[in-house]
Amino acid sequence: GKKPLHQRVVDELKHYYKGFHLLWIDTKVAARMVWRLLHGQVLTRRERRRLLRTCADLFRLVPFLVFVIVPFMEFLLPVFLKLFPEMLPSTFETESKKEEKQRKMLNAKLELAKFLRETIAEMAKRNKADTG
Questions:
Q1: pLDDT of res. 89
Q2: pTM higher than 0.85 for the full model?
Q3: What is the CA radius of gyration of the chain?
Q4: Which biological processes are named by the entry's GO terms (predicted)?
Q5: Is the pLDDT of residue 55 over 70?
Q6: Which of 27, 70, 82, 110 has an alpha carbon within 20 to 30 A of 104's alpha carbon?
Q7: Nearest to 53, CA basis, from 83, 17, 29
Q8: Is the dihedral of CA 29, 26, 63, 100 positive or negative?
Q9: In angstroms, rounded to a whole number, what is the distance separating the alpha carbons of residues 119 and 121?
């Protein structure tokens, strides 16, 4: 069944609230990491990736805020998300979008592994023919 309009609006508002809240937490953590960097400490690989993701999210927030601030422009958000799928900050992604992105990434890795396996098999055949 389809949810009533007021319930869908409330769900969307909760989604945006949670997204901004997570972005705020990520920004605070990133600020601490930058502080540590400025004082000569070295970041781990995980911390470095988190810092880069948070900085990218902050840059993506600028065009996203236009849709939130300008009245009735949020109706155009789905159109722009179809045209520019990476426009939305990572804290605003839904679970289904995250799963879809992971599925695509896994398929790409499997295709790459298949290609590499076939390439190695072909190289082995060539080497066997050359030495045989």
A1: 82
A2: no
A3: 22
A4: intracellular monoatomic cation homeostasis
A5: yes
A6: 27
A7: 29
A8: positive
A9: 5
